[in-house]
Write a structure and sequence with these properties.
The complex is a heterodimer of chains A (about 280) and B (about 425). Chain A has helices at about 20-25, 30-45, 55-70, 80-105, 105-110, 110-115, 125-155, 165-190, 195-205, 215-220, 225-230, 235-245, 255-280, 280-285; one strand at about 10. Chain A is an all-alpha fold and about 280 residues long. In chain A, helix 3 (about 55-70) packs across helix 7 and helix 7 (about 125-155) packs antiparallel against helix 8. Chain B is built from ten helices and 20 strands. Chain B is globular. Classes of the chains: A mainly alpha (about 280), B alpha/beta (about 425). Chain B: Belongs to the ABC transporter superfamily.
Chain lengths: ~280, ~425
Amino acid sequence: MLENEDWDIEITAQNNILDLKLKDVWHYRDLLLLLVRRDFVSFYKQTILGPIWFFIQPAITILFYTLVFGNLAGIPVDGLPKPLFYLAGTIVWNYFAECLTKTSTVFRDNAALLGKVYFPRLIMPLSIVLSNLIRFGVQFLLFMILYVFYLFKGTVIVPNAFLLLLPVLIIMIAALGLGLGMIISAVTTKYRDLAFIVSFGVPLLMYTTTVIFPLSVAEARYPAYSWLVKFNPITAIIETFRYGFLGRGSFSWELIGYSFITTIIILLIGTIIFNRVEKTFVDTV
Amino acid sequence: MSTAIKVENLSKAYQLGDFGTGTISRDLERYWARMRGKEDPFLKIGETNDRTTKGESDVVWSLRDINFDIEQGDAVGIIGRNGAGKSTLLKILSRVTSPTTGSVKVKGRIASLLEVGTGFHPELTGKENIYLNGAILGMRKAEIKRKFDEIVDFSGVERYIDTPVKRYSSGMYVRLAFAVAAHLESEILIVDEVLAVGDAEFQKKCLGKMGDVSRGEGKTVLFVSHNLGAVQKLCNKGILLNNGQVTFNGSCKDAVYNYSQNGVKTDANFLDRITYSSDNLKITNILFNNSSINDIVLNSENNFSFEIKVELSLKTDMPLDIECRFLDRDLNRVAFFSPGHHDGVTVQNKGEISLSYKITFPHNLNKINMDMNLYFTHPDVEIYASCENALSIEYTGYGMASGHVFEYEKGVGMIFLPTDKSQ
């Protein structure tokens, strides 16, 4: 008799590894937006400069890159204005790195909250990706200001149609950061070793992609090792971004295609692992 | 009435100890066993969760094969000692963690209040936190907006609503948090020890609100608390957990009674239950009606009276008296016996002594079940020793000419006033 009753919720030990409970996530969409707002607002609470801090960080970074890598080390930048070149790489890399590091500690950082109340766990990493998207947006604004500044100064910058790929690029960065982050977060709930690797590895990983040097330089100087740089799926994204907006750099459909497929695979693995862990991580975190 | 929650063979195992380098090899072993479709080798050796003894295995069953149904509209108190599995059960019900085996089926939305103020961000204002916390608990933004004034009003912190909550006193914090949770629209409400904080007035308000929720609005409420008074006020059903198993499932009153009796009912091991004793005296025996029972019936045949005999050995001469306190099943005090207060205290000589008393109840009480706590005292000066729940008494009640008997527990009071025939 009881078999015929329809239950709204069934709590069991197993769940479907590919079931993301997107219906649940949709119900909690307001929470997602409120969490993003929380991150954004609490970032500059009790500061005098407020949201301006979003600009100051990348501006100072660019200044140092220009001084150290551009002038001191003299790494060529495809003949582009150095600040513009570095900023293009930095904002893309920062978005990826922030998504990755924040997502990889999502269970640990929010253990108190997640251990007390149920909501779709996926909301948490999604909120990270979204709030970092806002930071990316702000930094992109800085990029555009600098861009227009150089246009008025008369620097030759030739944008092309590839800049229309920007939305795809953004989704790819977010998906990569999210996917890798979810894999790491799932593993680190019980064994924290990987968290150490992330904390010093991600800044180092930046040097294996084309943030501070163009791909052409890597190919010219270290032809045998340039595959390492291409192996990093972020490289294709940065190169495409620069090529679209600044008209210099290297673009190839193979490279961006490789990057795209890698992204999908990583996101898929991340989802499966995350789904396995989310149900019981409270007991082991 | 339909079933709102159905719990079937629910178990949850926890691993004790530290996770370190030793655990990964075991994880691989377990994973390998699962891959081959075999039973997890470490769950086989799991033990019941008795925290006081050192076990053989470091896997314990926090819950083991729990089965029960909860009807829609019931307010169920879940009671048990620390570590009995109450919180684990609520965590599973509120989907914070998942069971090791078994299943729970639920009809309707669940709102759980495992700890008020979960998800409050200290930097955000009260208002911002109402929205955030409401959303965490599963409310839509429009829903919160609709109820916003009501929530603020209930919390009573209107003046601080635009101040970051880190500036709140802990009481205000809890008020605001409970107010949000209390306005959730859900069919099932799970509450864990939220009343530990907040002042008396607010606690009363919370209890009242939860009472409304279960009785007025027909919601199902699951309530965990060590405050037995609150449990009894709020709940009509009770589930008693002990070492991860359901030891009692029935009316709330009986569950609380079972719990306060601690499972000891028939064996008269008073001496084990002496909760405190001074060095100067040793209780060697306690007898009721000259036998070692702990369960008597008072009726017109024994003239509603019984005898207590205690045997003690004293190290020094000391003034000594006994006190008997009689409690009803809600732990209210209903009667008091103290010969020392009545007649003055006698000094007893050191050595072996034996004291007997006869206690007689009035004949015109309504039917009542009582428990007796026995104390050895120097009245108003010192308590030498105490024995809780020394005796359980069933008073059969005043028999009227009509043959009807009123029962105290049905709310007619304790004393029945008979018709005065002398006029």
